[in-house]
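Try it yourself: sequence plus 1,3-dihydroxyacetonephosphate, in.
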Amino acid sequence: MLVSAKEMLNKAKAGKYAVGQFNINNLEWTKAILLTAQENNSPVILGVSEGAAKYMCGFKTVVGMVNGMMEELNITVPVAIHLDHGSYEGALKAMEAGFSSIMFDGSHYPIDENIAKTKEMVKLTSEKGLSLEAEVGSIGGEEDGVVGAGEIADANECKAIADLGVTMLAAGIGNIHGVYPENWQGLSFEALEAISKVTNNVPLVLHGGTGIPEDMIKKAISLGVSKINVNTECQLAFAEGTRKYIEAGKDTQGKGFDPRKLLAPGFEAIKATVKEKMELFGSINQA
Ligand code: 13P
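Structure, out:
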């Protein structure tokens, strides 16, 4: 059964580990992530951006696919299906379709408007028993057309949003979606510490999990990060696995062109990446 992310994140916060949000793109992605979570007895969050939902034929298709897989694959670990960087309208649609968790990203609005809209979302999601993520500051880079300047979040603004009763808070601390550039300055732990102090134990979310060095991930968790989002790293692993298969000419040998064979190395590569992250985040055996 799909669950809200509230309980798993509060548990993670208390236990000083983080739950991974892995974004999905299609059936192979979803199956790889669900199976890895089950095999490792780990809670998991399936992230779905509005662009990915559109690609997968809409929110209802995604919910139907995930529910079907959970039943057929006997997935018993806690799984949340979470809208990633949702717009106000997108959030309403995802809720209606049966998402168990919502991110409303109002970070591009002036703070008063972000507060007002997030407040409405708190009401709507809590009425349905869903978890809600809000964002302050912005995550740099681009994800599915959502572009962020990468500002460091202001602690007072974070406090104002956290006090609205959101389940979790994403705060920009120098993190970027996609691969980090050579000259990246690293995460601002000063900002994270300041935010953590005033946000009343609300689990914090670290976006842009791809390519953040292990020591920074561990330090971020120790300072209150309880959810870490990973997207690009699974895409790179899938692409590399698929490329190797084709470059070795395996698709031209026997029935190697069968999509079930052609997509298998990429699928296994996603599984390995997800497992590695779950180990690093400390969520294994926390289901
Ligand atoms: P990456 O693609 O950098 O891993 O970021 C994922 C993310 O933050 C999803 O919201």
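One thing you can check immediately is this: The longest helix spans residues 111-128.
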